[in-house]
Amino acid sequence: MEKDSNEGDELKHLGSGTPRLPKAYAPDLLEAFSNPHPQKEAWTSLICPEFTSVCPKTGWPDFAKVFINYMAAQRMVESKSLKLYLGSFRHHGAFHEDCIQTICNDLRVLLTPRFIEVRGEFNPRGGIAITSYASWALDEERYQKLCDHRRQNYDPLGSSDLGSMV
Q: Is 104 tagged catalytic?
């Protein structure tokens, strides 16, 4: 398969040198590229083991492992832009559930995937660990059934390995 010489030209962050993490939440950092196999149904799984945000009330840091799984349609997320975007939460004050829902919403808008789910396993603070889950599916019956099935069978106390999400 021959590569298009213009492929990836729209990506600003990839290959741009040393990244600088933004000081505030920055959804505009997210970039996507054309799915080379849009006719195929395939999972993409991304894991961010070092996600951080801050409590909007106390300013104390929160740490989590974030899992993103999606079934692409026409667009796929570029990983360096995702790293920068997730890094933009480092100084962003939001509750755990809001962070995870925001990530899911931003990726849904960017990609319009067939299906997407985002899970955040936040480290205990004050003796309580919080796991938050958000998902979305295209309105097509097939993907909505998948979304409903994943929600119904989601086990928040399950292991944090990738197998529990795919």
A: no
